Amino acid sequence: KNLPSDEMYLLLLLGKVARVDDFGNAMIVTVPKRGGLFDNLPSIAIKHSVKNLRNMSGLSQSKFSKALGGSISRSFLAEAEIGYHRRVRRSAMTRLLYALPRDIQDNQEAIYLQGLVTGGLAWDEVLEIVDTGREESTYDIEVRPDGKKIENFLGGYGGIFLHNSAIEDRMLCRLHRLTKERFVELARSQMRLALGEIDVGKGAQKIRDHLTLVYAIETEHPLVKGRFPKKPVLLTPEAFEAIEKARNAILEFIPKGSVGFSARLENMVLRFACSASLLNYFSSELDYIPVSDDALKYAVQLYVEEASIRSRETFKPEDVLKKLKL
């Protein structure tokens, strides 16, 4: 069973994208030449780039089509920009790229689109999701080959395109934007730390010990189980109201069109608020931990900042945060 997977990895090293078919008594690995999903791009991956490139030209769909030498029709542009069809042929996007006016050929948007069209990615569809009824532990790990920090990598059976969890790495950057003043202060602090004028060892150790103990309690580690009760985090209606208020403010500042982030972002933000609230485990005698005001404030701030990044900064997070009075 693992042999076809190894063969697909080998073919990937040679620049070939393969597929495997399970016939019950045999598993066949083939390299499709053309046709099917491998010749298509998902509309959701290219529609924003097509529209942005046309907007950069300052032309209408009809005039942009003429500027492309008629290689792409106006109706195709209209359908591509709104994702009318689920998939778009690579050949059509290749014609569009080759016909782009020179002043936008080297634009970052054009380079991004060219990477999708001519790169080594093959797109496929999830046909079915089956609930097995099994519950297993899920471990969120980050892949760093030779210490390199990457976002995308191949893994799983046959080489599936995977993505490192980037939101956690960006939290501090989003919650505390690196302004010039903060950069200077950080540089000075690093210098004082190197000269021995600052000792963070004791404070850092206390924080580490506190977090380790709370984690051990909540995961019911044998060394602390029975000594400290496990407390669930209570999500209050106020927490959902704060997220809804932030969502409405974000949507108000996003230009007309599709949203650049999914509803999963709200789930991740709520998880962040719950995780941050765990720090208050010893703050009360309650048998639960309510989401704290500070945790919720930072969660909303993270929501706004992350939504801006995923929307390619079509709105300024400062404007939304100002409206929310944060």
How is this structure best described in words?
There is one protein chain. The protein is globular, with a radius of gyration of 25 Å. The strands form four sheets. Strands 1-2 form a two-stranded antiparallel ribbon. A two-stranded antiparallel sheet has the order 3-4. The mean pLDDT is 80. Among the domains are: 37-118, 434 Repressor (Amino-terminal Domain) (Orthogonal Bundle), CATH 1.10.260.40; 233-323, no CATH class. The chain has helices spanning 2-13, 43-57, 61-67, 74-82, 90-98, 102-105, 108-118, 167-175, 180-194, 201-218, 237-253, 264-277, 293-310, 317-323; strands at 19-22, 27-30, 40-42, 87-89, 152-155, 160-163, 233-234, 289-290. Helices cover 51% and strands 8% of the residues. The chain has 326 residues and is mainly alpha-helical. It is built from 14 helices and eight strands.
